[in-house]
UniProtKB/TrEMBL annotation:
Gene3D superfamilies: CBS-domain, P-loop containing nucleotide triphosphate hydrolases. Keywords: Amino-acid transport, ATP-binding, Hydrolase, Nucleotide-binding, Transport. PROSITE patterns: ABC_TRANSPORTER_1, ABC_TRANSPORTER_2. The gene is gbuA. It comes from Limihaloglobus sulfuriphilus. This is Glycine betaine/carnitine transport ATP-binding protein GbuA. The keyword Membrane does not apply.
Length: 412
């Protein structure tokens, strides 16, 4: 197993009902979930899920109610036994572990955070958080110290001696998170952890999780039915339907290259402006003027060759220096000037490849220049994003349409 892979799922299938063997066979033959239910009375919870979860990533599983998210998550720590397939955690096949080994895996490697907090009402916050440590056999003083640390980590310092009913929903969920963190697990399994919270508190918890994740760098598997939440939290997102994983990718992958009509319909209302980046939109090897070599005439010829009115200028190391405009160079040509250097406009919009459409749009107002996409560290030009593709992207074109548009622009 590669170093950066924390969890591997291999053909995980879960079937509920008595005639599982028969249902499994039908599933292998490609029979639909509905037909299997009709013929065998069995429900397909998860249908041959195979994918890797990387160390330190927030992996979101998203889908509508009944799509199999919770079932899939529960296979990861075997709260649900897969009907077929393997779950490999840290290189060990936990589907083959004995009950004792599994218990150890759950205690040390994975913690779960539930939607309904699951706090013990008659215990104080600190005792709730320390509860798992008690089961693990930590001494009294030690577990209180760890629990207090964990409470502080989620921003609840001072509330340790209160009871769950004295805390708001958001705070109770923080306790749930603190309890999970107290075990210092490598993997956090979060099942609709924020779904029961009011929208503002929910957004706050999402921010806090991201902040914590920046520091703690756990591997997080997060279940949600909310696409906005999935996009906000997920380094990668798996979209499930009827137990089947329709697509896995970054939010941008899923938006720009939806794997099925289902996914496309699912993401059709997403505000793409905040997700699509310069990296996706840019022309990768644009025509450029050479800072050291090209004179006015050569630059004009280059522009005419590709029918553009503006060229990015780069030096010998491909570092972006600015733009030159045809209208300026034509004038210079008449005046028999030869160097382009004095005509370079250095104020043109410049971004790094991660810049979103939303961030680029304000940069193009008041200028006609394309956006130069440069490497943040080296300053090298990586590509340019034309104003037209930015504006189109701010509306709602898919990847195929963008490619078509780029081709058309290239041909002009
Ligand atoms: N214990 C069970 N017995 C029978 N069928 C079950 C059981 N648990 C889940 N299912 C079925 O398996 C499928 C997947 O359910 P699951 O709860 O994993 O979906 P989900 O995407 O998490 O939905 P939700 O968001 O509503 O929790 C559904 O069709 C559900 O009815």
């Amino acid at each position: 197993m590669k170093d950066n892979i924390k969890i591997q799922l291999k053909d995980i299938t879960v079937i509920f009902g008595k005639k599982r063997a028969e249902a499994l066979k039908m599933l292998d033959q490609g029979v639909s979930k509905n037909e299997i239910l009709e013929k065998t009375g069995c429900t397909v919870g998860v249908n041959k899920a195979s994918f890797d979860i990387k160390t330190g990533e927030v992996f979101v599983v998203m889908g509508l109610s009944g799509s199999g998210k919770s079932t899939l998550l529960r296979c990861l720590n075997r709260l649900i036994e897969p009907t077929a397939g393997d779950v490999i955690v840290n290189g060990r096949n936990i589907t083959k572990e004995s009950d004792k080994e599994l218990l150890e895996t759950r205690r040390t490697e994975m913690s779960m955070v539930f939607q309904k907090f699951g706090l013990l009402p008659h215990k104080t916050i600190i005792d709730n958080v320390a509860f798992g440590l008690e089961i693990r056999g930590e001494s009294g003083a030690k577990r209180l110290e760890i629990a207090q640390d964990s409470i502080n980590t989620v921003g609840l310092e001072g509330f340790q001696n209160q009871y769950p009913s004295q805390l708001s929903g958001g705070m109770q969920q923080r306790v749930g998170l603190a309890r999970a963190l107290a075990n210092n697990p490598e993997v956090l399994l979060m099942d609709e952890a924020f779904s029961a919270l009011d929208p503002l508190i929910r957004a706050d918890m999402q921010d806090q999780l991201l902040e914590l994740q920046n520091k703690l760098k756990k591997t997080v598997v997060f279940i949600t039915h909310d696409l906005d939440e999935a996009i906000k939290l997920g380094d990668r997102i798996a979209i499930m339907k009827d137990g089947f994983i329709e697509q896995i990718g970054t939010a941008e992958d899923i938006l720009t290259e939806p794997a099925s009509e289902y996914v496309q319909a699912f993401v059709s209302n997403v505000d793409r402006k905040s997700i699509i980046t310069a990296n996706t939109l840019m022309f990768e090897k644009p025509q450029v003027a050479q800072y050291e070599r090209d004179g006015v005439e050569v630059a004009i010829r280059k522009m005419r060759k590709v029918s553009v009115e503006v060229l990015p200028v780069v030096d010998n190391d491909h570092i972006f220096k600015g733009f030159v405009w045809l209208k300026d160079l034509v004038g210079a040509h008449k005046e028999k000037k030869h160097s382009i250097k004095e005509f370079i406009q250095t104020q043109g919009p410049m971004v790094n490849p991660d810049a979103t459409v939303e961030q680029m749009l304000p940069l193009i107002t008041g200028t006609e220049a394309p956006v130069a996409v440069t490497d943040e560290q080296s300053g090298k030009l990586k590509g340019i994003v034309t104003q037209i593709s930015l504006i189109v992207e701010a509306t709602s074109f898919d990847r195929e349409q963008i490619e078509e548009l780029k081709e058309n622009l290239n041909e002009q």
